[in-house]
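INTERNAL AUDIT FORM
Audit reference: QA-55
Scope: verify that the stored structure record matches its stored sequence.
Auditor: D.O.
Record contents follow.
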Amino acid sequence: MQANIKGTTMPILEVALNDGEEVISTHGELAWMTQSIQLSQRMGTGGPGGGGLMAGLKRAVGGGGIFVTHYGGPGAITFAAKAPGHIMPVEIESGQSYFVHRHGWLCGTPGIVPSMGFQQSFRGGMFGGDGFVLQKLEGQGTAWIELSGELTTYDLPPMQGLLVHPGHIGMFQGSVRFSVTRMPGIANAVFGEDGFHVVMLTGPGRVWLQSMPLPVLAQALSRYIQHDDRTTQQAAGGGIVGGIVGDMLRGN
């Protein structure tokens, strides 16, 4: 298997597979592939503990799906980033784990086992009702992670904490402890009655932070794309009236 990350602002991941080799993804994400690639969907990932209904349900809660798509060689397949940012490979050894943001795991080798890492709902409708959801990646193999915007890493020593906006958490090692806490005295239209929530990350371990998470970008753009129902109805009515007047002027 040969994997190459190409591009800068909107990177792609090209994976060349030999006969008998596979990559897996929980969403069936792909940009393009050669005709020789064989697709199949199964509940199992090919790694220990990655099969069965319960494992599928954990993947679904963590932001993936009950079924896993397997892409088999020989051939080549390409995955593309959904937003400007980075695609980075992570080597996971037996006994290790990584926590990744909800939409972060792009694909991996069959030994990778994705599951639910953490989920917390927010009454104020944080991130369009998604809440704070993490995927947990275990097993053994290579995982490719998509992180949005610019990327910053911190190596936290034992007992050192870092307070982070939930949307800017891209990934962190399983040795890092985390908890969601509410900042008292802060009310915010985005977070409603829940106030402002941050995540406390405590070392030891490495943390990857992303500058432009998709949910935060979507909220920033929502004010520009929301339309008042009355305005929409008036626009539709104007179109109908305009069409009738046009027909009259044309003699229809």
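Auditor finding: record pair retrieved intact. The mean pLDDT is 79.
Action required: none
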